[in-house]
Structure formats: C-alpha cells, structure tokens
Amino acid sequence: MTRRPPKRHPGSLLGVRSLAGQVFVLQAVLVLLLVLAAVAALVVQARNDSTREARNRSIAVAEGFAGAPGLPAALRSDDPAARLQPLAEDVRERSGVDFLVVTDTDGIRYTHPKPDRIGKKFVGTIEPALRGEVVTEEIVGTIGPLVQAVVPVRDADGDIVGLVSAGITVENVEGTAGGQLPLLLGASAGALLLSMAGTAVVSRRLLRQTRGLGPGEMTRMYEHHDAVLHAVREGVLIAGSDGRLVLANDEARRLLDLPPDAEGRPVAALGLPAPLDGLLASGRVAVDEVHPAGERMLAVNQQPVGRYGAPAGSVATFRDTTEMRVLSERAEVAGRRLRLLYDAGTGIGTTLDMARTAEALAQAAVPRLADFVTVDLAEPVLRGEEPAGETVDMRRVAAAGIREVSPFYARGDLIRFAPSTPQAQGYGTGRAILEADLTDAPGWQAQDPERSRGIVEEGVHSLITAPLRARGIVLGLVTFWRSEKPEPFDGDDLSLAEELVARAAVAVDNARRYTRERTMAAALQRSLLPRALPEQDALDVAYRYLPAHSGVGGDWFDVIPLSGARVALVVGDVVGHGLHAAATMGRLRTAVHNFSALDLPPDEIIGHLDELVSRSDQEGEDEDGTPDDTHGMMGATCLYAIYDPASRRCVMARAGHPPPAVVRPDGTVEFPDTPVSAPLGLGAPPYESAEIELAEGSRLVLYTDGLVEDRARDIDAGLDLLARALAGADRSPEETCDAVTGAMLAERPRDDIALLVARTRALAADRTASWDVPSEPAAVSVVREEVARRLADWGLEEAAFTTELILSELVTNAIRHATGPVRVRLLRAERSLICEVFDTSSTSPHLRRAATTDEGGRGLFLVAQLSERWGTRYTGTGKIIWAEQQLPPA
C-alpha cells in the first residue's frame, strides 16, 4: 500500500515559493555587498598600514642613528662626510630604508646613497627638527611616493649639532594585500556561488518539507523560540507602544527583580530605579549604557521596533557588569601606577644634582602614592663617596607633602635612626618595610617619642620605608607617609614604592658618582692653578677664576716674572670638562713655565706648545689610529704676552684665543689687532706675534671665551659688552675685575671663566743706565767705575762691590769670546738690581766646575754665587747675559 503525499494548499505553496525567492535574492545581495566591502576595506587598510609602517620605520632608523654614540663628535670632525657616509650606508642596507641622510644644522648633506648629492641642500622640512621636534612628511621623490623622518642630533650638553633623515618608499612596505586580493576575490566568488546553491537547496527543501506550515508547526516553532529566549544569560524586555510590558525573560526578571505578574503592567509601575525607568519609558536608542539596579551595575541596550509595518514598541537587553566594573577599577588603579612610574622615569634623573634628584622623587610620589615623602641620604654619599658600615648618619635632603607637618625632621637635619626603627632595618637589610599602624609601632616610636607622637597627631598613620639601592650599595632611604586615606599602605603599595625607589636609585648613584668626579677634578684643578701671584715690579695684577656650574674645566692663567724686569702674562683654555681637561691644563701650564724659563719670544713658545699637543695626540692614539681620549691632550687655545717696563712695549701671540683688551689711561677701550692662528694641536703654520706700546697706567685685560660667549650671545656681542664694562678711568685691577664679572657673568655659567687684569708700570729713565764698551780688556775698569758712580747715585753703595765683580766677569767673557760691540745696561727695579751685557754672539756660556789645575772657568760660577739668578736670552742680533741681585727692602 503506497502512502499518498499530503495535499498541498495552492496559496500556501505560492507563499513558500515567493518567500524562497526573496530569501535567495536577499542572501545573494548581502554576500555580494560583504565581498565588495571586504575588498575595499582590505585595500584601504593595506594602504594605511603601508604608510604607517613607512613612517614608523623611518622614525626608528633616524632616531636610532641620531642617538648613536660618537655621532656628535663625528659631526664636529674635520671631514664628517668621510666618517659618516660608510656608517650611514651600512645602517641603510641593514634597516631596509631607501636613504639615510645626515646633515648639518643648515641642511647640507654629509651622507647620501648617491655620493654626488653629498654637500647639497637637503630637500624637506627641517625647521621643527632644529627646535628639537621629530618631523615626518609624505612627499613624492625621484623614487616615488615616500615617507621621510627628520630628527635632531644632540650632544652631551643637549645642543642640536646636526640632523638625521631616513626615508622609505611606500611601495617597499606594501603588505600582502596585493597577493591576497586575487585569493579574496576567488573566495568571494566561491562563497557567492555556494550561498546561491545553498539558497536553492533551502528553497527546494522548504517547498518539499513545509507543505503549508499548519498551526501545530507554528506552535512548536514558538515554543522553541520561547525556550531559547528564557535560557540565554542576558535579560530581554519587550515593551509595547502603550508603555506596557509585553515580554520579560527569566534573566530580566532576576536582574530587575520583577514581580510574577509584571507582563501586561505599565513599565512605570514596575518599581525600577528612576534612571532605568526613564530609559525604558522613553523608548530611545541606548547602547551599553550603565545603570544601577540595587547592588548591580547593568549595561543596557535598547532599540525601537515597529518598522516595516510591525507593531510599535521597544526591545531592551540587560547584562550584569558588576564584576567587570570591579576588574575595570583594578585596571584603572594599575594604569595610574604605571603612569606614576612613567612620569617618575621621565622626571627623575634629568640633573646630576643629588638634592634636585631627591626632590624630584619626592614630588613625583605626592599625592599619587603617599601624602608625604622624605628622602634621606647617607652623609658620605653627599660627598660622592660610598657609605660603609651597617649604621650611618643620614642627611635629610628632600621632603614633599600635601601640607606642612612640623614634627618631621627638616631639610638639612642630620639623623641617626635607632636600630629598632623601620628605617634602620631597611637600611641594614636593603629591603623595603611596611609599617601599617604607627600608633602601635614601638620600634618606630623609639626614635623620638615626642616627635613620633606629634606626627601621629597630625593624622599620619602608616609608612613605607624603602632603601635607595644601586649596584648593591644602599645610598639612603625614602619614606612614604599616609594620612588622608584611612586605609593603611598594602602590599601593592609596597611593590610600587620599591619599583619607584629602584628607578630613582640609579639616578641618585649617577649624581653621586658625578659629584665624586667633580670633587676630584676640582681638587686637581685647584692644585694646578696658581695659589698666589709672584712678586714683580712691572705690573699690578688682579684675577678672577670662576668654574663652570656643570663641571670642572681647563681654563688657566699665569703671571711669570722674566729677566730684565719683564713679566709674562698667560691665559689658556682647554676644550671640554672633567678630570682629563684639568690634567691637560696642568700639563700645558707646566710646559709654559718650562718654555718661559728659556726666555723665548711669545711666538716660539706658542709654537712649542702646539708641537707638544700634536705629539701628545699622536701618542694617545690606539693601534688602529683612532684617538684615545684618556691619554692624549685635548685641544686648547692660548694667549702669551710679555711686557717690558723699560720700553713699555708688550709682545704677544695667540693660538685660537679671543683678542686681549687694552684700557688706556683715559678710560677708552680697544682690542689690538693681533694675528690669530689655529688652536694648539692642529699643526698650524709658524705663529706670528704683535708688538704694541702701552702707556703707563694702561690696563691689559686677558680672558677666556667663557666670559664673552655663551648660548644667549655670540662673541661679537660679548666683546661689545666687555668693552662697555671696561670703559672708565681711575680703576684698579681689582675694581676692573669686579665691574667685568658683575656686568657679564650669568647666574649659572656653562663654561669656566679666567680673567686677568694687569695695570702697567714704567721703569723711569733715571732708573736705567747703559754704556757701550770697547772690545779691549782695559775697558772693564772704566765700566766698573761708571757702575760704582751710578750705584752711589741710587743709594746702593753696599751693592757696588758685588755688582762690579759680576759685571767684570760678564764683560770680560763678552770681550774675550764674542765679536762686535758690547753694551752694558743696569736696571734699578723696586726689589732687584739687574745687570745685562749685550753682545753679537749666539753662543751661550755654560756653568761648569773648574778643576784645581784649571787657570780659568770660575767666572760664571762666581756670578751664580753672587746673584739671585742669572741666565741668557737671545735677541735678533745676538744675546744678553743677565744677572739679578735681590735688594733689601727700602
């Protein structure tokens, strides 16, 4: 017996077919739109990703190369292009950028992938980079659309000394979108065909299986829908157009605590919280709005219904977000702590001053971590030393708080913590300690019961003390105090305090080590500079030496008495700061004294110094020829001047040094035109000297470039300011120094300053005497008689015998061994009597000890015994043998 298929209703079958056709068309359109949207989104995203990747890579390469050690030194070298081109090309090939260009601050290229473009102007925007900003821009270059970044290069002082630009074409960072597009189109076409085939199959099954969908089938479908609605873990509430509740599933009843007969009642009568009640009654659109409902926090979404001819109303869904909110609050707390650590990392350690570093730490933690913060450093640390022992005196160097609390130790107080205190225990163990309740902390109170009681009365109830530990050494303690929040510090606060202090400890240790080096360099520098000016009769001298605020430098000065009542004035400046600069200054100063003892003219002394520095630099090179800064001398400038009070003439030479200033007796200021050569160590051509005549009472002013040049003004403006400060008559050297320093010194000088002011004296004509001596032995007696008469006129009869013996020996030697005319000059200075014998010979006599059988050879020995000092200096026509006797005070 065959089963007859059920009879189909013609209207039902027609409706099913129409529905199947609509489903088929709708699904095909949706799939097609999705495919087109996916392709468009992929193309746009690929383009954006390529541009972003090009920008990020160019910035990373440019900043990495700009921060490379040695780059500022390379930019200041004689040939930056030769040193930087191979390095830049190597980095470019490794990083995959299309070009890596290094320029000076004017945009002139030092490097480029095409060497013929080196030395030409960089194409791009560099002005923001010169202000310290990072510049990125998209341009169309010769190699196509590209993204280039320009970053500044800073030296150790933070000055911008050059620029680095890296660029890459967008084409080179194109993603895989181009390769994925064919695959996506193929997959989309397949999906479209598959969906069309699926729709056709569904339509057939619908036609074959529905057979009109009677009431029973509709009932079962509704029951299934109702079961799903009540099983989901999200509340669903449907309201009609009249504001009455149409449907609420089980989760909505639980979350909103609805009564059993809620359906059919007005939503406003369900007793819901006011904000939520108003939202449901309004029927407006809501997306993830959070509303309280009892102890819960509900995320509410609401959409109106009734479009396309359906009944009007609204559907609202509810999610319980209470636990998520707790997690969100914890994440917010963690975010605030990370922000605190980040801010502390950028704000602490920006200076090498320990007190300012400690102050930055205290201010960073208030009030985000604690209400009060105190920082105590071990006493040896403040001197740059490492603390030794388990107990040590602490000096309070910083404190910050939300208000003033008088019971705390004040800044500058010396503290020795009792062994029972958390501070002493933390210092001994090197670990942070939490004291949750200060009212019940006998160990902490034992430090100072009265002070502890006052702190508690101020509302402080909890503390964390964390040791400043760096490289295994505890440098001090940081104590965090809480008063405003009633809850004590907890374990999370302890961990945060430890992390914060650990980061600050490195900065404090760097400042300590810098302080130690600066103290050592300052001590070395003080030992190398003149402690007092030597006595001499030619000049009244005053000086000022002012070290830089940032570190010890290599500026120096000297006043060196020479033969013939002359005086040498020296001012020099060594490049850089620190121990090496101070050591180089000491070596140069010693060399100047040694060369001055040879009585050489200024240009020759400068030449010898240049040779010394050049030779030292060669000895300070490594095996591969690169300079070794720890051994060779550093570059330096120098000015050397010799003043002769007998002739009132000053001879000077300078190597890369600022020009001297001369203040005439009437108060006018001028800068003599003196030849300037390259700084010492550059192997310059022979140095030149200049000779000027100075009226008695003139002031000769020598200085280093730190006085007239800084970031705020160039050297021309500095020289104008110096001239205005020097102008004026009737000033002593001391008054001149005060006027110059008061007018020109910055509050925190960045470079050392040496200032030397010398007011000239003249040796009166009646204090000198000279005689031409014939080249015959009989003339010696005549000279002795003339000298005796002149000494009697000067009131120096007691020195006549000694002077006659000295001149007899010197004149006899000149007549016997020299050729040409001989001349004798006698100089009467304030403190000394000087005998000089001029001849045309370039042969210098030598002191020797004569044997008992020798008939001669004792003359110079006798001169050396009778005089305070003696020597030889050369002139353009011969030499001068001189002897100086010390005169008793008048």
Automatic annotation (TrEMBL):
One cellular component term from this protein's GO annotations in UniProt: plasma membrane
Residue runs in coiled coils: none
Topology with respect to the bilayer: Multi-pass membrane protein
Annotated region described as Disordered, given as residue ranges: 612-632
Record InterPro entries: Bact_Sigma-Reg, GAF, GAF-like_dom_sf, HATPase_C_sf, HATPase_dom, PPM-type-like_dom_sf, PPM-type_phosphatase-like_dom, sCache_3
Superkingdom of origin: Bacteria
The keyword Transmembrane is assigned to this record: yes
Pfam families (UniProt xref): GAF, HATPase_c_2, sCache_3_2, SpoIIE
Subcellular location: Cell membrane
A GO molecular-function descriptor: phosphatase activity
Keywords, sorted A to Z: Cell membrane, Hydrolase, Membrane, Transmembrane, Transmembrane helix
Domain PPM-type phosphatase: 536-760
Domain GAF, chain residue ranges per copy: 376-518
Protein name, entry field: Integral membrane sensor protein
Organism, as annotated: Streptomyces pini
